[in-house]
Prior knowledge:
Chain A is α+β, with helices and mostly antiparallel strands.
Amino acid sequence: MEEPTLRIRELQKDRVDFVMSGVDLAFANSLRRVIMADVATVAIDMVEIEVNTTVLVDEFLSHRLGMIPLTSTNCEEGMRYKRDCPCLGFCRYCAIVYEIDVRCTEGEMNVTSEHLTMIPPDQWDHDEEASAAEDILAKRGKNFGVPAGPATDPDPQRKPISLVRLRKGQALKARCIARKGIAKEHAKWSPCSAVGFEYDPHNKLRHTSYWFETDEKAEWPLSKNAIEEAPPGDVFDFTAVPEQFYFDVETTGSLNPQEVCMRVRLPVPACAWKLTMQCRVWQSCKISLLR
Amino acid sequence: MNALPRFELFTLGDGEKAIEVVEDTKIPNAATIRVAKQDHTLANMIRGYLLKNPKVLFAGYKVPHPLEPHFILKIQTDGTATPVEVLQEVCTTLLTLVAKIEGKFKEQFQQKELEVGLEEPYGAPGGRLPRGDYTEPRRANAMDYLDF
């Protein structure tokens, strides 16, 4: 079998650009799908609104709260899915509880993700099962559950995420419960805001035909990936298959490690975790086939 | 309120079989395989690598309904191996491929980290934050710019 190759072209704290070759188009596309929809993160899943005199309705605010990226370093091991947890409601192993309590007393103010305060598990008002699973909590990364923003990023330009703007006298009070999940369930659990995927920048394979007004070349400029491949010759090679795949993965910040030196390693868990998860899927397929 | 749990799209139900094989009675060396709670991610990848296998005469998959989370894979071989054997072979190939790519990612990220560390020796404003809360252990021989 052909040896796969991988080359990272660019790496930033919230994005990675890489080129992959030696694999099938089908495999590359599966990798893209996995990066987008199968990596576990934490996101607010339930909101109990106590007071809402803001201009936005409860559902609107709940949706916005759910979309906030929460730092989820090593969420795969550091947290349980609700469905796998023996607890009845929520516990420290399968949930994180937040409270938001804002009242505008003067002028106008912005409610942001900074107003979301994490409630420590010992202050939760519910019965918790005493199970010996403390090691799960130890596996969590630093700032686990903290909304991605100025609290997790040393960049002074970094701004918190806006939720709603309040006028004098308006208030918002709610309790939010965050859960572990994957983006197949809801897109809020996706660790990526975008995944760029391209192959055959010169359209040598003629997998697409360009619509144009007068001049095809002028209206369809080549992408930046075009420099990686030789321009097409005169003869159309009908046996050619896609060989190089260009990925550009941009994260939301939920799986963005805070540390200056760690940020370059950010997408390793994003890619590798799910790859190992897929391994498990294949293994289970194999096991059931052998039976 | 009466909606099904959302995770039913990707977790097996009670007693549900992950994979079911039905041997085809009309076509020689053919089988239809139903894989539950999986989608195009796995199906297309398996199909792609089945077609690369010289023993395979036909391989195709379909997701019968977009709201039903399963796919059907049809395989016909040339008779030197059964469809299930070929599928197992392909799964093993894919597993090694995934392991290889995982290794490449690790290697490349470590290399990039070293490069970036050289490019911006003082890091971002706010100073150097402590290491150690990351899943992957730091390489023992990796030198940091502050290690004198």
